[in-house]
Amino acid sequence: MLDLLFWPDAPFSPNEIVWNKNGDHLLDDIWRPFEDTGKIPTEPREGAFVRYFRHPEIEDKSVCELCGDTFHNHGWIDYGCDGKTICPGTKLYI
Question: What is the pTM for the complete model shown?
Answer without folding.
Answer: 0.78
